[in-house]
Amino acid sequence: MADGWAKRAWNTPAKRDGFILRQLVGKDFKLKYRRSVLGVLWSVLNPLLMMCVMALVFSSFMKVGSDTVKCFPLYLIIGNTVFQVMTDSTNQGMSSIINAASLLKKVKINRYVFPIEKVLFACVNFAFSMIAVIIVMLWFQIAPTATIVLFPLALLYLMVFCAGLSLALSALSVFFRDVMHLWGVVVTAWTYLTPLFYTISILPDFMQRFEMFNPMYHYVTYFRDILLNGVWPSLHANLICAGCAVGALLIGYLIFRKNEHRFILYI
Known about the structure:
Blueprint: H1 2-9, H2 13-33, H3 42-61, H4 72-94, H5 96-99, H6 101-104, H7 113-139, H8 151-175, H9 178-193, H10 205-211, H11 215-229, H12 235-259, H13 263-266
Helix pairs in contact: 2-7, 3-4, 3-7, 4-7, 4-8, 4-9, 4-11, 7-8, 8-11, 8-12, 11-12
């Protein structure tokens, strides 16, 4: 019966890709938590522990504007979990084509499913990390507001943006392996340049203007507005988030589409 369902799933390209994506996400999930005592609980514990360390360091020993934030621990954990989606998606998506070399050489399959699957898997982990955010909200008695209905839209913006980056990086890394090393430096710099553990108000004017060109600043701010501040994001904020997402996806798709027929020669 299972074989019959699997055969029906391959009837159309969309069903086939959907079936493959589900199988790959399931495989990655099992591999990540294999032989781990706490298993998926680490997806909740990691952001909580990081929040505790960062809250202690940046609110007690360093002046980063924490006194101007409604709830600094919640401010920290939202920023870090949102940024982690981008980090996980791109780091894993970047090597997804290379790691699937043996499969791509044997089976005719749409290549884009591999970087896209890494984005979906990062979102699965993000869903578990949101349990940690809920725990912090309960601990500090921060009640959700009606703005939480925009959470799916915020996640969609972020996923599309990450998918565009992953498509571009996965294609470029096939031809230039140095991209995989360089991206680690870029992400580290991006982390410190984005107000994750400090507030934008402590930055000088020219840096505050620079943040307007930082897509992750806009995505992190969007999530903080709807989860922490209870503020409805403006039309301008929505246009920026949507524009960055569509722009990244378009560029990533064009890079991937133009070069994918040559992947087999380099993997």
